């Protein structure tokens, strides 16, 4: 008969867990006397008297020494588990739109990294059950530590991006508490030193550092870099066609052909577009003068910057207006469209020339996306009793278009307030647009912030102008055939 006790219960470790050996073989660990009895019963030794020194040898305390605090341990593990699950869901929500539908490779990589980090955090959440339990698997502590480090890195990035603008976003209620949680969880884990269970902790640390560095570089490139090497180009052209005399009325029908081509490398959304035809009248003088008074009057009245010695007192009459595209139309790279428009002028019109002005404002698709279904809805200001959005207090009779616009990088979307693009059109004035996050809550637009948003989304306006002599145009007029 061996003088060595058959069952040995080791001293409690730092968490109050006592290792148990039976016949010299480790069979598990126990948090309490009840759990020890259950373990012996499962092994077929339920008849062992745990209080008998001949059967059970207690080290570091007797049968009443169980320092485990189960309620505190379970609550702590549950909080870590909940934080990892919440961070995993947040990362997946942020990353999936870019991973599945981003335009650029860098943005897709960023989205895929966020989705992958969410999967790692799910694995860490599962490992919490073992690490805050009996720690039967050595790597679980390192996996939990990796999940918490990922949460701290991604939440810190979200907080830094939010601090750049400090705009309210619903996601703020998620990533700000999660950042506080990740700091707390990291401090908690550092006290536990979970890397001790890893066979090669240095290689593990190097792998974590390399992954974090690669992720940080990818995120910085995708988030902070704005492509400037591929500027947008649009070719706008207007041509007056062959004029024809009206068969029944003393008017001349003048065709106008409008051509638009996206010659840039990226597609673009049309924010607002406009064509306007003017008829010019002027006073002619044989000798003429460059005194400047008449030219200054033309500048003050009509904004006309041209000057001719024998032509003075320029005035422009509005003849016809329209839109080239419906707002929200997507113009693909290389796409070319033409539109034929016919307008009328009196046969005895006193204009000396006709002018066509084209204007097109676009938003780059590689910088943002417009909710086209909402944006292309017409809202007539004279039918709206209240809540009419305006631009620079210009709230006259206009057609208004309002739609949400999103960044192509979803990481930016979750750290910025919702933005809206507003466009207005009227045949009586110049089309206008505005892009900001204040159109729906009644706040005054911050012009400096709006300028930054316009640049960030790549919003720009292109213009073109065409003149034709009325004398030249009427040379081609075909008189009506006698009926």
3D architecture notes:
The protein is α+β, with helices and mostly antiparallel strands and 483 residues long. It folds into four domains: 7-58, no CATH class; 70-224, no CATH class; 234-360 and 463-483, Sandwich (Immunoglobulin-like); 368-457, no CATH class. Helices cover 36% and strands 27% of the residues. The chain is built from eleven helices and 18 strands. The protein has helices at residues 33-42, 70-101, 105-131, 140-165, 172-192, 201-224, 293-302, 372-375, 410-413, 447-456, 470-475; strands at residues 7-9, 18-22, 25-30, 56-58, 234-240, 244-245, 251-262, 268-284, 311-322, 330-331, 336-346, 353-364, 368-370, 379-380, 399-407, 419-425, 432-436, 459-469. Strands 8, 9, 10, 12 and 18 form a five-stranded antiparallel beta sheet that branches. Strands 13, 14, 15, 16 and 17 form a five-stranded antiparallel beta sheet that branches. Strand 16 (419-425) and strand 17 form a beta hairpin. The longest helix is centred in the N-terminal third of the chain and has 32 residues, at 70-101. The radius of gyration is 38 Å and the shape is rod-shaped. The model has no long low-confidence stretch (mean pLDDT 82). Keywords: Membrane, Transmembrane, Transmembrane helix. The chain crosses the membrane at residues 79-97, 109-129, 141-163, 169-190, 202-224.
């Amino acid at each position: 008969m061996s003088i060595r006790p058959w069952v040995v219960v080791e001293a409690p470790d730092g968490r109050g867990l006592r290792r148990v050996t039976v016949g010299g073989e480790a069979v598990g660990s126990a948090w309490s006397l009840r759990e020890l009895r259950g373990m012996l019963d499962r092994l077929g030794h339920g008849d062992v008297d745990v209080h008998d020194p001949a059967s059970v040898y207690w080290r570091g305390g007797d049968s009443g020494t169980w320092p485990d605090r189960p309620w505190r341990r379970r609550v702590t593990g549950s909080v870590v588990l909940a934080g990892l699950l919440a961070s995993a869901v947040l990362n997946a929500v942020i990353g999936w739109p870019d991973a599945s539908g981003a335009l650029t490779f860098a943005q897709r990589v960023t989205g895929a990294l966020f989705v992958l980090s969410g999967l790692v955090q799910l694995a860490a959440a599962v490992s919490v059950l073992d690490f805050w339990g009996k720690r039967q698997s050595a790597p679980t502590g390192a996996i939990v530590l990796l999940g918490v480090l990922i949460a701290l890195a991604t939440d810190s990035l979200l907080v830094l991006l939010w601090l750049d603008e400090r705009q309210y976003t619903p996601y703020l209620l998620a990533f700000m508490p999660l950042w506080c949680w990740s700091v707390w969880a990291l401090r908690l884990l550092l006290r536990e030193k979970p890397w001790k269970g890893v066979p090669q902790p240095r290689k593990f640390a190097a792998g974590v550092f390399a992954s974090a560095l690669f992720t940080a570089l990818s995120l910085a490139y995708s988030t902070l870099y704005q492509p400037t090497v591929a500027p947008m180009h649009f070719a706008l052209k207007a041509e007056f066609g062959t004029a024809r005399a009206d068969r029944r009325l003393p008017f001349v029908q003048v065709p106008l052909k409008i051509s638009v081509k996206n010659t840039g490398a990226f597609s673009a959304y049309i924010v607002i577009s406009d064509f306007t035809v003017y008829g010019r009248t002027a006073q002619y003088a044989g000798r003429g003068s460059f005194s400047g008074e008449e030219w200054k009057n033309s500048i003050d009245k009509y904004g006309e910057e041209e000057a001719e010695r024998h032509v003075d007192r320029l005035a422009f009459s509005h003849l016809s207006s329209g839109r080239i595209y419906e707002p929200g139309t997507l113009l693909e790279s290389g796409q070319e469209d033409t539109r034929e428009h016919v307008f009328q002028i009196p046969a005895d019109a006193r204009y000396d020339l006709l002018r066509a002005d084209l204007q097109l404002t676009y938003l780059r698709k590689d910088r943002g996306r417009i909710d086209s279904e909402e944006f292309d809805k017409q809202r007539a200001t004279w039918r709206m009793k209240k809540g009419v959005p305006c631009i620079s207090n210009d709230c006259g009779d206009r057609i208004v278009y309002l739609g949400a616009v999103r960044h192509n990088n979803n990481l930016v979307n979750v750290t910025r307030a919702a933005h809206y693009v507003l466009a207005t059109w009227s045949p009586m004035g110049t089309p206008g647009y505005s892009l900001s996050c204040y159109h729906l809550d009644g706040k005054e637009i911050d012009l400096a912030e709006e300028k930054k948003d316009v640049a960030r989304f790549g919003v720009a306006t292109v213009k073109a102008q065409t003149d034709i002599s009325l004398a030249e145009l009427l040379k081609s007029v075909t008189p009506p055939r006698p009926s």
